[in-house]
Amino acid sequence: MMVSLSDPMAPRPFRVQGVRKETYDTFTLELDPPHSAADGFSFAPGQFNMVYVPGVGEVPISISGDPGKPQTLIHTVRSVGTATQKMCARGSGVVLGIRGPFGSSWPVEEAVGNDVVIVCGGIGLAPLRPALYYIMAHREKYGRVVLLYGARTPEDLLYKLELPKWRGQFDLQVEVTVDSVTNGSWRGNVGVVTTLIPPARFDADSTVAMVCGPEVMMRFTLLELERRGVPAENIFISMERNMKCAVGFCGHCQFGPTFICKDGPVFRYDQIQPIFATREI
Amino acid sequence: MAAESLERILGEHPFFGGMEEPYLQLFVDCASNVRFNAGDMIFREGEEANTFYLIRHGKVALETSAPERGSVVIGTLSEGDVLGWSWLVAPYKWRFDARAMDAVRAIALDGRCLRGRSEEDHDLGYELMKRCAQVMERRLQAARLQLLDVYGGGVSSKR
Amino acid sequence: MRKSSQTEPAVLERDQLQWLLQALINKGYRVLGPTVRDRAVVYDDVTSLSDLPVGWTDEQDGGTYRLKKRADGALFGYASGPTAAKKFLHPSDVRLWRAKAGNGFQMEEGPEGSPKLAFIGVRSCDLHAIAVQDKVFLDGKYGDPIYKARREDAFIVAVNCGQAGGTCFCVSMNTGPKATSGFDLALTEVLEDERHYFVVEVGTRLGAKVLDQVPHKAASAKEKAAAERIVAKTAGQMGRTMDTKGIKELLYRNYENSRWEDVAKRCLTCGNCTLVCPTCFCTTVEDVTDLTGEHVERWRKLDSCFTMDFSYIHGGSVRSSTRARYRQWMTHKLATWLDQFGTSGCVGCGRCITWCPVAIDITEEAGAIRQSEKS
Questions:
Q1: Which residue of A has its CA nearest to C323?
Q2: Does the complex come out with an ipTM higher than 0.85?
Q3: pLDDT tens across A73-112, in order?
Q4: Mean pLDDT of C335-360
Q5: Which residues in chain C have their CB less than 8 angstroms from residue A101's CB?
């Protein structure tokens, strides 16, 4: 039988029109939707696609572009396995298969009227960048907005050209730190991203926090946010697990009773607190 | 600056949170405002540790010197952080360099004086130890997280 | 599938059942039923009554399965085989699509179709298993087109169990032994007073239509009573029980119970339980290509949460210990399934107990955890 257009397992062809190197192993791909998609590719911040390299394989990648600019689909990809390596190496002109968008999204509407704290580590900034774009596009609706970002070394920072632009905005507090420095030219913070939380300028009583990064980093970040007095129901995290189908059938992404592809990847922390604390679940 | 406002500043600082009045006055007596210019060395590895600082403004780099790497920044501290605890733990010597990264304003506290008073008044000593232990605990946790190297990637890591 | 209560139960003599098979074949169904192969009862194509396990029964216990000859010639005298409808509704190797790569990317073909399927001899537990899988594949935001296509057209002839299997506990799970819904026709086999007949209950209008093609009589009160007696007797024969009261909360409270270490010492993570369980649905996706890289296909294959690959991310498995993997399987089956789909994942068929090489018993494990809270 022919593949129905609505079959969630069938990828649509998107052409890569640009590849930008962020770090040694991380690249940002800019993709054009197929001609049939007149409105571009709509998505909510925090969602992800299944990106298919024809003949090689398919992997889940967060969408990192501006939700207000759906004409181009943007993915920041870390080149770690066969599929992602091919994705980054093939360059412009190549066609990738896209399925999506899938998953839950950052609570950018819920956060209206509150301060917003975004804490991310490593590639964790990639799924949060769309939320930041959205918030900046509707800046007047929010209180104080803080971005706390940690990476391994200065060379591993993503979006190096954008970070100073964001920092330059008077209505955004941006603090960046690195775990260690390899040469002497870094004049910024050195230390883990959790150390940026105590002095950050936000009102813990009315703040929505969005956290993304390696699980260990998120665990310690949650501790620091709790210390500041941010209630668990105001903290949102993005979880990751092995994913194959992204539509809740293959069972791989189960995290306790949740499916990360359907119920996540963005979760309200208080709702998954007990599972989050259970080892090997 | 008048003594009353030093008292207010110290009283408001998280490190002194919950400190009883007579002790707070003692700290005020041992405190003074200091300034450093960008690039100034606040203290050096190996020196006697007799003063500790509450950073009010600016950034301080903790550094160590490694052969062929020169000065390596192992951590930075900023507004609100406590700089230095070696003044309270024998042998009272600094283990790292501290360099002002930009214009730094801080409150310096006479650690040697406080050490002496703590030997006489153990209640005071306990209050100080409690607070320093907290600072150390947070630093240790952060250092361990740094060591875990959670982000992976980078030129120098193996796949 | 609405129950058509207007049609009264019918009676078919033993040999007349062949006409039912024929009626289905004539209607273009691929008829699947129990057959004996490799010393087990296995679902396969049947065209004649002689394909069925005539005169066979099974002896099942923890880690034990044997076929034994019966004293009579019952057609459905066994309890359950290792496979069920899942083998055909949720097949283990399916091509999802085929496409042309190279310059651009073009979809060519979707999943292969299947002839409409008719299942004969589906036990009540397996009917519930089908209903459980319906919730997984049909109820969510996305439907599974492969399951949907096969399921929509499937014709189901259920069989009420004449005896309990060695590892059954359907009564505890409220899934049998009497088939109450989810079938087009339901048979109860009666061998009494030198007669061999089937009482046929009609479940749907389609079932009634098919039955109309087969010469039959209305069942007498005596015949209906015989059928009911048999099923009641089966219900009383259960060898195992599962206390399902508050079982979800029980398991949620006991993620760190030491019993998991205990079962981990025995479990081989062989995954047999996931292969024979009629509700286990996990699959994996495989992308393949020919040597030129121009013809690409995506295949779906049955998978098991017991493999190390299952939870693999970033250079390691989230569930690397046996303890974590067994715990995942059992808590999914009995607890998280309830939050995910509104039903238990377990239908009490007992297959996981029979086919576990080290005889791990899910009812015993659940019981032990419950007991550990009391002491």
A1: A280
A2: yes
A3: 999 999 999 999 999 998 899 999 999 999 999 999 999 9
A4: 98
A5: none
Per-residue pLDDT band for A253 (boundaries 50, 70, 90) equals very high
Please say whether the beta carbons of A51 and A58 come within 8 A. yes
> Which domains are assigned to chain B?
3-113+120-148 (2.60.120.10)
Chain A CB within 8 Å of residue C302 CB:
no
Burial C180-199 (b: 16+ CB within 10 A, else e): bebbbbbbbbbbeeeebbbb
DSSP SS3 for A106? coil
DSSP notation for C318-337 = SS-SHHHHHHHHHHIIIIIH
Report whether C214 contacts C19 (CB < 8 A). yes
B101 touches chain A (CB under 8 A): yes
- This prediction's pTM: 0.92
The answer on pLDDT for A269 being more than 90 is: yes
β-strand A115-121 against A145-151: which pairing, if any? parallel
C4: pLDDT strictly greater than 50: no
The string of pLDDT tens digits covering residues A182-205 is 777 898 999 999 999 999 999 999
pLDDT recorded at residue C1: 40
Choose the closest CB to B150 out of A153, A189, A217: A217
Mean pLDDT, chain A, rounded, equals 94
Domains of chain A: 12-102 (2.40.30.10), 115-238 (3.40.50.80)
Taking each helix axis from N to C terminus, what angle separates C205-212 and C17-26, rounded to the nearest 10 degrees? 110
Contacts of C146 in chain A (CB under 8 A): none
Cβ–Cβ of A3/C312 closer than 8 Å?
A: no
- DSSP-assigned letters across all residues of C40-104: EEEEEE--SGGGS-TTEEEEEETTEEEEEE-SS--SS-S---S--THHHHS-SEEEEEEEE-SSS
Beta strands in C143-266 (DSSP E): 155-160, 185-192, 195-202, 217-218
CB contact under 8 A, B142 and A195: yes
What is the percent of chain A with per-residue pLDDT over 70, rounded to a whole number?
98
Compute the nearest-CA separation of C160 from chain A (Å). Answer: 31
Neighbours of A257 (CB within 10 A): 18
H or E element that contains C150: helix C145-152
Residue C74's contacts (CB-CB under 8 Å, 6 or more residues apart) are C54, C55, C57, C162, C189, C191, C196
Q: Which residue has the tokens 């950052």?
A: A106
CA diameter of chain B:
58
